[in-house]
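From the shared-data thread, chain only:
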Amino acid sequence: MFRAQCALGLLARVAGLALSGLLATTGGTADAFAEFALLRPAKDSTLVEDPSGALANGSGEAIFSGRINSTSRSIRRALLAFDVATAIPPGSTVTGVRLWLNLSATSTGPVSVRLHRVLTDWGEGTSSSGSGGGAPAVLGDSTWLHRVYNDLFWMHPGGDFDSMPRGDAIVDQAGLYAWESTPELVADVQSWLDHPESVFGWMLLGDETRPQTVKRFDSRETPEEANRPLLEVVFVPPCSPDPVGPGTWRRQCAGLAGETPGDRVSARGSAGVELVFTDWVLPCANRFLADLGLPELDACSALLSSPPPTCEDRAATKLVVLVLNVCAGRLQTSCPVESAEDGCNATNVGDLLREISILINAADCRRAAGCGGSPDL
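Structure, as tokens:
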């Protein structure tokens, strides 16, 4: 999966098929080519039931949800929060959300673990407990009584959260589990993007009706990076085009081929990161073309075809230039395109990519080469 090629927490631009089941691929929408971000938690913690609020687990290698095998003080509630606004451009529309957690230990069978939206801010201190029993609370911890130890309190012991679940998953034996996208989860992440000051995250509630139902999930502090919590967010970015034309991309490809020095393309990333042509833009474009149903089409080969260009060359060049600009963050799939007079129907870049690729596969290069006017190219 292409996910491995992108840096966590940075904007990842790729065709929708690379996200398998998460993206909605309804025909005729830019969402089929939506962009996505991968985020690790900004903080996580476990609330340990204790009437004095003296126990916590802010920096342990695991978070816990459910009840341990005890007749009292047995409830555990996990907290997770993600800094959405650092990874997604402001003004974007969130269309899909999926949370991944790795279950590292359990003493019971299948249990429903629900996500609830937390209603106020909380702290992550340096206390650490790997067994779920909790450790002495330190300043900055969240506890059963304190949202920030030792002077800020929850309104209700055990945390302040919306009683309506935002999503749930059936968690059984050790392994990776996903909380799939729901309208409520999408609304939460959209709200956190639009109002970063309200990012209080989710609480994981397990089975609290009987003892020995606790589930142990790896936290953001676990040494195994692959097992840390991960949030996938699919979104449609606002249109802010700054594309470059085929000449720039030809020079870049020619530089790779040793023909002429290639100019460094400034590819815009969501966190001010410059995405380098050889390391990101070109691999992204070739994977994008494969996901569009054109695995045999290589971006640089299409741009460096020998003159005079054929009808097929012109169609391939048009598609490749669009894809390279999308992968470089210089063109968004939500951007509108001019309507064409030859029967093409695309009204935005996402639909235009789909339509051109379909026409190329149908050997209709004339329509593909003239289909839709792309912005500022």
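Helices lie at 183-194, 246-257, 277-291, 299-303, 311-327, 349-361, 365-370.
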